[in-house]
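TA notes. Do not distribute before section.
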Amino acid sequence: MTRSRSIVLTLLVALALFSAGVVSGAGGVIMILRHRAQLAFLDPTAAVATVHEGFAERFDLTPSQRKTARAVFDKRLGALLAARREHFEQRVEPELALMAEEIRALLDDDQEARFDARWGELRRRWWQRDTRR
C-alpha cells in the first residue's frame, strides 16, 4: 500500500469514527430530552421540582428564597393541573369515546367484553395519574 493510500484510509476511518460519535451523542441527547418530556407529562410534581431547582440555581437564591419559591411553585401546581385537566379532558374525552366506539364495532361479543374491561382499566389509570385530583 502506498503512503497516500494509507493516509486516505486513516482519514476515512477517523471520519467514520467521528460520525459514529456524533450520531451516538445526538441519539443520547434526544433520549434524555424525550425522557424529561415524558416525566413532565406523567409526573407533574417531579417536573415542578426540576423547574424549581433550575430556577433556584439560575438566580442564585438563598435558602430562604428557595423555600419560599418552592412553596409558590407547589401552591400553583394544583391550579395548573386543574386547568390542564379541564382543557385536556374536554378535548380528549370525545375522541376517546369515538375511538372506542369504532374499535368495538370491529369486535365480536367476546372480544368486545374483554376490550371493555381493558379499556375501562386503561382509562382509570390514565385519569388517575394526576394525584392532586
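Switch to the second chain here.
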Amino acid sequence: MVASFALVFSGSFAAKASGESLTLAEFQASPGYQLLSDESGATASFLSTAAAAQISTTSSMEVNGTPASGTILELNSTKTKSQVTLSNTNGGEVVGTPLIGTFEGNLFYGPVNIASSANGVINYDAAITRLNKASATILAMPADGSPSPFSNYTPNQIFSGAQMDPLARLTEGFSTDSLSNVAGLVFSPIVSGPTESDPTSTDYVFTVASAADGQTPPYNWLVRATFNANHVFVSESLTGTAGAISMTIVTVLSTPNSIIFPLVDSSRSVSLSSLVNMGRKIAAEKSLATKAKSLATKATALAKAARKTLTVTQLKSAAKTLKLSTVALKTGVKLTAKYLGVAGSVCVTAVKGKAVTAHC
C-alpha cells in the first residue's frame, strides 16, 4: 500500500506541489480549493434535478500489508425515499449481518437491535416480549428521531452532495468531527489535470498530513477527486498511512433514472412508540412490587388469624388496613401507578386459597 501511495502521487502532480505546505485555513482560501468548491457546487446543482442517486463508499485497511477490517456504505435514494446499507468487512469480505435503514416519508425503518439504546426505551427485553414482538427485525420510528449514523442519510442530505465533500471524507479518515481538531495539519496545494482513464474528466489531487500526537502516529493522506466534463462528481479516493497501517476510502456516485426499493415487511416490525410506552408501563408495575407484596402478606395473615381460606374478602380488608388505593375485582384487588405519564397495574387475586400477584 505504501508503494502504491508513492506511485499514485508521482510525476507531474508531485513536482508541481512539492515544497509547498498550507494550513487548513490557507488551503480553504487557495485557488485550487476554490475550483474544487465550484465543482462541488455544480454537482449539488446537478443532483437537485436528478431523479435518483446511488453513492457507495468502501473503506479498507491493511496492517503490515495484511488485509484487515473495513466497511461498505451503500446509499440509494430518490427525492422522497432513501435506503442505507452498512456492512462490515474483513479482508474485503462482508462479515456479519449488514445494518439497513430506510427513510420513507416521516418514518425511519431501522434494525431492531438499535431500539435497546434508543432514547426513551427502558425495560427493552420485557417490553418487546410483552408486545409479542420478540421475532421483530425492524424498528419503526419518526424520521426526525433516527439515530446516528443513519440520521446522515436522509434524501435531503444525500441530494445535498455532502457525501462527496473531500474534506468530509477526511474527517472520517482522521476519526474526528472537525479537521480543526487535528493538531499540526498540513496540506499541499491542489493540483488538477486530465483523468488518465478519461481525459475529458478532471482530477483534483492534494495531500494532507498530521503530526504525531501522544500515542497517535502521524497520518498521511493522498486525496484524488474526479469530476466529469459537466463538472459533476464521479469518484473520490483517499489513500493514507499511519505507521504500519494503510487505509483506502473510495466513494463513487451514479444517477440512475429510478430505483426499486425492497418493501419493508411491516409484519416483522415494532414501533418505537409502543416500546417506549410498554417500557414505562412495566416500570410503573415494578414500582408497585412492594405494595403488592405487603398486601398479599397481610391478607395471608388475616386469613390465617381467622382460620379461613384466603379469599377476596381478606385481600380487600388488607388493602383497607394498609390504606392502599385499590380497585375491587371479582377475585381480588388492583393497584395502579404511573411512570412518566403511562399507567401500569398489578392485580393481587385469591387463587385456590393463595394470594397471586401479576401485572394486569
